[in-house]
Amino acid sequence: QGQIVESGGALVQSGESLRLVCAASGFTLDQTTVAWFHQAPGEEREGVACIRRSGGSMLANSVRHRFAISRDPRRNEVYLQMNNLRPDDSGVYYCASGNNVFGCLSPREYEQWGQGTQVTVSS
Length: 123
Prior knowledge:
Layout: E1 3-7, E2 11-13, E3 18-25, E4 33-39, E5 46-51, E6 57-59, E7 67-72, E8 77-82, E9 91-98, E10 112-113, E11 117-122
Parallel strand pairs: 2-11
Antiparallel strand pairs: 1-3, 3-8, 4-5, 4-9, 5-6, 7-8, 9-10, 9-11
């Protein structure tokens, strides 16, 4: 059974940047589809970015010009670069991995999840 651990969340001011890290053990991340999800307090978990085994990626419209997803197979890690952060980006960010993913930004498609990392953006 593999494990996913997210890190990199912090308290930042509006306009600043963060890089979140998704690290896996017990399995190889780039052999799966990996996605980042954002959950604000009282809201449902929503897909932010995903990267497929092929390397193709997708970003949610709300972050398209501010966030980027990438991976480093040597480190078995996937990253979410978050630029020009806004207060509504605040929440817990989860990394998830799935083997047979059709809807890349749909949380139902993923089997394995990390515990999340908290991002807070102050105005």
